[in-house]
Design brief:
The relative contact order is 0.19. It is globular and about 50 Å long. A hairpin with a 2-residue loop joins strand 6 and strand 7. 21% of the residues lie in helices and 51% in strands. The chain is α+β, with helices and mostly antiparallel strands. The chain has an 8-stranded antiparallel barrel with strand order 1-2-3-4-6-7-8-11.
């Protein structure tokens, strides 16, 4: 019995070591592959970023740079943890939401050795399918983005005022969002 426990622990330790080594190698590969372009990749036409985010929805976040100063971002997931204040009955609805934004990439504010600080403005719709119906809103976006140069990663904070359209008209001026995405 003791032998089996030690064998499982040894096998478990070996699996953990292999997983960690694989993870370290993958991070090193992606870091060196993107290092030459990491400073500009997040704003280069054709770049794609995938990660996690909270916009109209909270979940999987993606961004596609269409032109040097224009991008589209989308978030698919839950309805942002009930954070929107468009509707009085909108607290923690069960369901799925999709939000998409057209972003205008503004000039870089500051560039340092390891990161560039940029900003963007935009707008876009959001749709939610809840257990009690459908919700729809339009939001404006003002984002502050930190684009890392060491690895192709962006960290974004957003102010997202919006107008709820369905199931009733409502104004949400206290909405915020955030994203973290890896680019390739």
């Amino acid at each position: 019995m003791v032998w089996a426990t030690n064998t499982y622990e040894t096998l478990g330790d070996e699996m953990i070591r292999r997983l960690l080594m694989t993870l370290v190698m993958a991070v090193a590969l992606f870091s060196t592959a993107g290092e030459a372009h990491a400073g500009s990749l997040m704003r280069t036409s054709g770049s794609i970023g995938i990660g996690l985010g909270q916009g109209y929805a909270s979940g999987l976040s993606g961004k596609y740079v269409m032109a040097d100063m224009m991008a589209v971002q989308a978030t698919v997931g839950t309805h942002a943890f009930g954070r929107h204040h468009y509707w009085h009955h909108d607290q923690r609805q069960d369901g799925i939401s999709v939000g998409a934004d057209l972003l205008f990439l503004m000039p870089i504010i500051h560039s340092a050795e390891h990161f560039a600080l940029g900003w963007n403005l935009g707008f876009g719709p959001g749709v939610s399918l809840w257990n009690s119906g459908i919700g729809m809103a339009v939001e404006a976006v003002a984002g502050l983005e930190m684009n890392l140069k060491v690895i192709p990663l962006d960290i974004v904070l957003e102010y997202r005022p919006g107008l709820g359209i369905l199931p009733e008209i409502g104004l949400g001026l206290g909405n915020f969002g955030a994203h973290i995405r890896f680019y390739f």
